[in-house]
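Hi all, posting the design record for the shared folder.

TITLE: backbone redesign
STEP: 1 of 1
STRUCTURE INPUT:
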């Protein structure tokens, strides 16, 4: 087996790995968890009270380094 054949096998392995990752990431089973992760950024900023209304913190950040 020469170096070119080895590089060809390695390229096919990398291609197969890429295809598996793409199929895994777009599978319908993973959609719910990916959506939850995507919306988790907003959960820190917007919290709901007991009636389901959104509350926002009235704290304002200041830059005292000026």
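Okay, here is what came back for every position:
SEQUENCE:
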């Amino acid at each position: 087996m020469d170096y070119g054949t080895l590089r060809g096998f390695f390229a096919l392995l990398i291609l197969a790995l890429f295809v598996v990752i793409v199929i895994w990431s777009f599978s319908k089973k993973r959609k719910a968890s990916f959506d939850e992760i995507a919306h988790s950024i907003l959960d820190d900023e917007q919290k709901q009270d007991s009636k389901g209304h959104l509350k926002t913190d009235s704290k304002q950040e200041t830059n005292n380094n000026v």
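COMMENT: Helices lie at 3-25, 28-45.
Let me know if anyone wants the other runs.
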